[in-house]
Amino acid sequence: MACRKTAAQIREQVDKNLTCRAPGCCDPMTIFRGLGEDYCRYHQMHLSENGGMARPDRPYTFHKKWCCDWCGYNPKEDARFDHIQDPIRKDRGQRATLICDHIVRRADAQAMGWTNEQIDGPENIQTLCQLCDKVKSAEEDDWNKNVRLGEDYENS
Ligand SMILES: [Zn+2]
Ligand SMILES: [Zn+2]
Fold first, then answer.
1. How far is ligand 1, taken at its centre, from the CA of residue 106, in Å?
2. Which run of H or E residues covers position 110?
3. Strand partners, 106
4. Cα(114)–Cα(105) distance, rounded to whole angstroms?
5. Given CA atoms 67, 68, 70, 72 in this order, what sign does their dihedral have?
6. Residue 135 C-alpha to ligand 2 middle, in angstroms?
7. Which of 13, 26, 114, 129 would staple 118 via disulfide (CB 3.0–4.6 Å)?
8. Which tens digits make up the pLDDT trace of 74-107?
9. Alpha carbons 12 and 116: distance in angstroms, whole number
10. Ligand 1 centre from 82 Cα, in Å?
11. For residue 132, how far is its CA from the centre of ligand 2 (angstroms)?
């Protein structure tokens, strides 16, 4: 099912020393075509469509974990999902309970002069369950400021 790139493409990647576009990853680009083809093989396989947590258009989602950083909630251990037989639907539902949150939100970080690598880097990304995310929103008065709501909702 995985289809290799052409020999010419692979040679060009090697010649130009092209590396994975995931933040902080220096591994060579995958030789397989299709979704995530500008990532290394490891990160390509971590895209949600390939069974992982991340979205190709939001590289910071590679830092997403299977557990809430605030309360420890882990949807894989949540019995409410037990009766769902289809593993793909189950996985999708479980994954959607968690979101990838910027600790310092993008606009604030940009105002402080942070680079995109810093903004999307592992130190600035935490995994929150939907409930803790709402607590954070309430703490930071997001509804009033009309910010952040939306940006981090990378779940599908
Ligand atoms: Zn990579
Ligand atoms: Zn939580």
1. 23
2. helix 106-111
3. none
4. 11
5. negative
6. 9
7. 114
8. 999 999 999 999 988 898 899 899 999 999 989 9
9. 27
10. 33
11. 4
